[in-house]
Design brief:
alpha/beta, 7 helices, magnesium ion binding, 2-phosphosulfolactate phosphatase activity, ComB-like_sf, 2-phosphosulfolactate phosphatase
Length: 186
């Protein structure tokens, strides 16, 4: 017997914490979420806020803000008085149709999932759990991964090593960047 939650397995609706890649992935897992965390380690393109499902709160993640992101989810959950679903999206590049795996985005997404688990939000999809495990295993090498990855090397080749250094500085920032606040259905 198929349940409503199994009708579209790619939406990962049975999980509170979901993970997917790029704009199409954001649409797949974001339709029934309340909060979307956009994970773009190199910020190749701005987060396409207007192309994402309406009502969602959208946060632009950094490694330095993952604890605040987890606290924001808890606050949103308290405000709503019920379980709040989160879509964690590894942006990829280009966001419309990512070309390969952007390891820096996956590790950033994993850091977000780990921070959510640390505050008790741990009903994660297998995809989210795998990203969290990748981050846990490579936590000490994230900076190296940023510069050694395909996209990091491409950025250095196109814009110079200072562009990678600037991306790393932004990635480590502790600023919580809420791009759009949650709006309940009317």
């Amino acid at each position: 017997m198929t349940t409503a939650l199994d009708a579209a397995p790619e939406a990962q609706e049975r999980y509170q914490v979901r993970l997917d890649l790029g704009l199409d992935g954001a649409r797949r897992i974001g339709e029934s979420a309340h909060l979307l965390v956009w994970c773009d380690g190199l910020v190749g393109e701005a987060c396409p806020v207007d192309a994402l499902p309406p009502r969602l709160e959208i946060i632009d993640a950094t490694l330095g803000s993952v604890g605040d992101i987890a606290q924001r989810l808890l606050a949103l959950q308290a405000e709503r008085g019920e379980r709040t679903m989160v879509a964690v999206v590894a942006a990829g590049s280009p966001v419309e149709a990512p070309e390969g795996l952007a390891v820096e985005d996956l590790l950033l997404a994993g850091a977000v999932v780990e921070a959510l688990g640390a505050v008790g939000i741990d009903a994660t999809s297998p995809e989210a759990a795998a990203a969290s495990a990748a981050f846990a295993g490579l936590r000490g090498a994230v900076g190296h991964m940023l510069s050694a990855s395909v996209s990091g090397r491409a950025l250095a080749s196109e814009a110079g090593p200072e562009a990678v250094a600037a991306a790393r500085e932004r990635l480590e920032s502790g600023e919580l960047r809420i791009l759009r606040e949650f709006s309940p259905p009317a």
